[in-house]
Design a protein that fits this description.
The complex is a heterodimer of chains A (330) and B (248). Chain A has helices at 2-11, 26-35, 38-53, 65-86, 109-119, 124-140, 144-148, 151-169, 180-196, 206-216, 222-234, 239-244, 246-255, 274-278, 309-313; strands at 92-95, 98-101, 104-107, 260-265, 297-299, 319-323. Chain A has 330 residues and is mostly helical. The radius of gyration of chain A is 21 Å and the shape is globular. With 248 residues, chain B is α+β, with helices and mostly antiparallel strands. Classes of the chains: A mainly alpha (330), B alpha+beta (248).
Amino acid sequence: MRGIVDSLRLLMGGEPRKQSRAEFSAEAQELHAFKGQPEQRKERIAKIRAELAEPTFSFTHRSFKWRKWRWASIILINMLFVVSFHYDVQLVEGALTASRFVGFHMADLNSALQVTLAHKNLVINLVIGTLTVAILWWLVGGRSFCSWACPYHLVSEWAEMLHIWLAGKGWIKDHPLDRRMRSVLYVIFALLALVSGYTVFESISPVGILSRALIYGAGVAMTWVGVLLFIEVFLVRRFWCRYVCPIGMTYGFVGSVSPVVVEYTLPECLHEGECRKVCLVPHVLEMTKKNRAEDVALTLGADCTRCGMCIEACPTGALNFKLRGTGGLI
Amino acid sequence: MARKLTPKQQKERRTLVFSALMGAGVVGSGLMAYLPMHLKWEAYLRPPGALNEKDLLGSCIKCGQCVQVCPVEAIKLSDGEGGFGIGVPYIDARAQACDFSCDATQCVLACPTGALSHKIDKKEQVNMGLARLSRPDACLARLGQGFKGQARGADFEGLHRYEKIDRWNPIKIADHPYDLPLCDLCVRECPIKGAISMQPLTTDQDKDDPRRTPVVHDKCVGCGMCEMICPLETTAIVIDQTREGPKV
């Protein structure tokens, strides 16, 4: 239970909590103590040196086993909409905000929320579509919507690559923001919909804008997507996905008790911090710091997008996808 | 007395201020979408069944399922210039009107949120607007003139379903030339019975005087077919957005 509360607090922008030693499991305490021995420390440093010498360690030579599936997934999902409309296949009609998948209603959770708050009316089709989508994304991890379906996530990833490259050259630097901002904006946009009766957020949602642009053709609203990408390249790394997007937060709540999680195992970890460097939401990887894991195996919190980048980045295989509730069978 | 801040506190404060600025920027950008509506840059003709403008914008989920089912592809989605109505469907009647080719109101059936009211099941219940003779002096019927040829020229892409030619499939208006002694296209192609009719200009008009004027009646639903078919360079008849919601 405490795990869930912490995970939601983190999702809403809270700082990772530093647990007292008393909260650590006996096994974890033992392992931390063991890792702290002088000879073990030396061994760890030697191992990290060896890693650094490996050619696969560099970012350009890394295996992107999850990324290629993820990008394929984003492209496939979005192209299904496009192909469906242009060739009149009637497989997925609509856009990411709401659609019919072979006749079944689907509604994006945040769009449905905005519309319901603005119009103050519960429509049965929308309730059905929202529940279907909620169950679907709960099953596969909640914020997995972000990294496996959202078209903005993909272009934002490309912007991030450019950002990292420019930052590496020393030409720009990242200006991190306060993560509580997303919660504040979430409430503001919900209130704006409720009070004004308009779905104010939809007019700046790059997800809706991009999805519609792909399907129905681009217009002036795409300049807003351009502005966001500009900010992400030159000013704030992953500005929208990290600090703003209420859609991601909504799916985060859905995924807080999802069966699909990324699991961290303390024994394998050398605490290099490679995972936190690549992560969109590094606060969920706080336990990978030295002496922080309160147990030998821990799952990442609700804000984790299940993108698998940390899994790819980890040189020792301490992070892996896990299906909860199967007793370790899968 | 000003308290001296440690460098860490200074950095935190800078982050907080910068976050507040960026956050305000995001909210401000969202609110800027009110501008096009306040200035009324566009007065959109909305698809059949659309609730009144305010409710439509709030209830539409901006998915375009209505766009996808329309057999004549009359429905478009407004973009950034639509303000809070970004992604909300509209019809540019002059380019492609809704001619109820679908018989029922397919767009209404496709709408997942009831922004196009599900109370509607007949085209007669639709209330998109009201036709108005905007340029009476140019109207061919009022001048007593006929019309021969393609109503909107050879290049016009607009579609219309001519029941006598093909009951099920709309064809290009350009593929259906006319030869009319007196132009009555707006009346002839109107899909709603009794919505518009040709009347003499005055009650005491001479019997041999061919001049007539189109008169719009209460039954007009504002589908825009007359606006699309008007063969003049600039249409003589337009749709006014008088809609307050469907007629049910």
